[in-house]
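Our platform keeps sequence and structure together, in a single record for each protein. Such a record has a labelled line for the sequence and another for the backbone structure tokens. The tokens are whole numbers drawn from a learned vocabulary of local backbone shapes. The remainder of this section carries one protein's record, kept here as part of the documentation:
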Amino acid sequence: MIRITAKQDGFRRAGLAHSASPTDYPNDHFSKEQLLALQAEPMLIVEVIKDSNSDTQGDQQMGGDASQTTDVTAQPKPAAAKATAAKKAAQ
């Protein structure tokens, strides 16, 4: 699953207006080129999330610089952080 959150509501990239609220897309929604462009865009936080139907090797969050695995400007919501920690502990 690919989760995209815009730093500014309505920001457009890859033919879509992205929301300031996280929006989930199936892994095959974007072409490889589109996904790379989205990950390189500093106005977007792009997370590639491993799910039960995915062959993704692990959770990755990228925003602005595809060489980084986290966006330090984005702070997880407390409930999301707890859920992520619990998910990782279960693995």
In short: The CA atoms of residues 1 and 51 lie 7 Å apart. The two ends are 18 Å apart (CA to CA). Residues 2-90 form one domain. The first strand starts at residue 2 and ends at 6.
